[in-house]
Amino acid sequence: MLAVRGLSSGYDKVTVINGIDFTVGAGQWVSIVGNNGAGKTTLLKTILGLLPAASGTVGFEGQDITRWAPNRRIRAGMAFVPQGQQSFGQMTVAENLHVVADHYGREAQSRYDEAIATFPVLKEFRDRRAGLLSGGQRQQLSIARALITRPKLMVLDEPTEGIQPNIVTDIQRAIRRMSEDQGIGVILVEQKVKFAVERADRYYVLAAGRFIDSGDGGPDAVATATDRMRV
């Protein structure tokens, strides 16, 4: 589905990521872990077209999309959940979801229902303003909004930042269901290794803009990935 080959990018003349290679298949959860300043967000922005690639390629569904604009990538099946639990604070949960769902005409209700089913708490709070939700509930809302587009690839940037532990677990389970049950490819970048690695299919450790380690995900991989982040 996604094939990143020799990807480098940065800001002005400063290279932040250099020579990145990895793939994501349909229904595969790939996590990229690294400390602050490792280049995680820069990598995501380059994959999404928010930053231009200095070199290398981004392939998606068999097409070279390296020079595609971000909106074209979204239409092709990418969805992005940025850091920070973004939503329209003065609108209700239902209104936040319908803003996206209503673009799909006859499918609007079914897409809305699918999103609510992923995070049942949103149904309970559907009439509450998004600005009154907890950070974890707002993050669930952000992911649900992205799911309405029925993406082929979901890209999540630090989804656990500032979120209470019980909701972190709910989000982890939801991401696993997305990949297993809906066949959505997932790229997740995180500092919290346990969350990112223990249920992922594959992980990469990013440091100073390069991958320094990789392996199959799972509970047994958490300690190894954690140790590599300390290097």
Q: What is the fold's blueprint, element by element?
A:
Elements: E1 2-11, E2 14-24, E3 29-33, H1 40-48, E4 55-60, E5 63-64, H2 70-76, E6 78-81, H3 93-101, H4 108-118, H5 121-124, H6 135-147, E7 153-157, H7 165-182, E8 185-190, H8 193-197, E9 202-207, E10 210-216, H9 222-229
Parallel strand pairs: 3-8, 3-9, 6-7, 7-8
Antiparallel strand pairs: 1-2, 1-4, 4-5, 9-10
Largest sheet: 6 strands, mixed
How many H/I helical runs? 9
- Globular, elongated, flat, extended or rod-shaped: what is the shape? globular
Strand percentage lies at 25-35%
The CATH homologous superfamily name equals: P-loop containing nucleotide triphosphate hydrolases
Provide the spatial order of strands within the biggest beta sheet. 6-7-8-3-9-10
Write the CATH architecture name.
3-Layer(aba) Sandwich
CATH class categorisation: Alpha Beta
Rounded to the nearest angstrom, the distance between the terminal CA atoms is: 31 Å
CATH topology: Rossmann fold
Number of domains: 1
> For the residues shown, what is the average pLDDT?
93
